[in-house]
Design brief:
The chain is mainly alpha-helical. The chain is built from five helices and two strands. Strands 1-2 form a two-stranded parallel ribbon. Helix 3 packs across helix 4.
Length: 119
């Protein structure tokens, strides 16, 4: 058995979630989510808008609620919850997006400029 050749350049490393989120908000990805889920709420998992609405009803979320979203990535579903519940900057309600780095964090920052994502 021959020893591996250690003089060659190793293959490029995958950049993890960065490549996944690179085109996350591209028109073709939005269309894909609309076709796959029926409604594009910026999800990056298998949650659908109707399921999320049902969860919000079960949790009895109100404009004064406090919601923590663990592992929220770019916070698409969280932004949907904020808009649906009616949280606005200055209201008593509060959201805490937790998780993500790099591109997802930057995307969440862009979404944060509109509704009431984390104050």
């Amino acid at each position: 058995m021959d020893a591996p050749d250690r003089t060659t350049t190793p293959p490029p490393r995958a950049d993890g979630y960065e490549s996944f989120y690179r085109e996350f908000d591209a028109p073709w990805m939005r269309e894909f989510r609309r076709e796959a889920y029926g409604e594009d709420i910026g999800q990056h998992s298998w949650v659908g808008a109707d399921e999320l609405r049902a969860d919000m009803a079960r949790l009895r979320l109100a404009p004064s609620s406090h919601l923590i979203d663990l592992g929220c990535g770019p916070a698409g579903p969280l932004a949907f919850v904020v808009a649906t519940v009616g949280w606005m900057r200055g209201s008593r309600g509060r959201t805490e997006p937790v998780g993500g780095a790099g591109r997802p964090l930057a995307m969440r920052g862009a979404r944060n400029r509109s509704p009431a994502l984390s104050r």
